[in-house]
């Protein structure tokens, strides 16, 4: 057994189970083609090593954060071209997470383990479909190509990780939106309509819930927009018994996107922070928002 510092890239396909249910054979064939024609060449071009695959998940190791991010960008660019050649319902949108940390190497099969690998997997889950998320350790060491930018996703509480981890998303500069919404108020009128915020997630019974709002509409409502169970009193309806009739309010205040609990029965959480009624808290892209028993993630389209 040996230990070494490595840049770890973890990837997973968004909606893979649904795709397999639709057509196992076709999905498997597309996945194998992506591995051979996209992943392996991109990893090799950045002097990385494909550690292994398990179902739709892939794990790769690189000697530096710079080459790891370069490979991740190359993979997503190649995947965009690959997806153009197949049916829309079969397109494979990988989420990629990148972290720099110490790994344990199994001398027998060269597999890697440890906290660094676990964090890369958790960060991957925070990425948008077709996107890349990285830890602060990676962001601090990497200077992106001019057409890309890091967008702060805020401090996140990750599953089975005792400490919070600051996440950064890699976006193309043409579509990059500050994840903590700083400078949203300075976004030009021409660009605002292009930005859609999407909240999606499940309750404890795994029932799916979601709603969307354009940034333009949210910014036009100085009093904010209400989330709750009552269709006649709310802008966004979450039909769940643990959600109050008027549960929480979304608004853009100054340069921040905020959520405010409206004195709900079962409470509102941002990450692990329980909100006090009437005290707004900032939201970030990639933030987990809990409304009653419904866990949601904020993304933008």
UniProtKB/TrEMBL annotation:
UniProt cross-references to InterPro entries, sorted A to Z: A/G_cyclase, Adenylyl/Guanylyl_Cyclase_3/4, FHA_dom, Nucleotide_cyclase, SMAD_FHA_dom_sf
Name of protein: Adenylate cyclase
Record-level GO BP terms: cAMP biosynthetic process; intracellular signal transduction
Domain FHA: 225-275
Provenance organism: Reyranella soli
Top-rank taxon, per record: Bacteria
Record domain Guanylate cyclase: where: 7-124
GO molecular function: adenylate cyclase activity
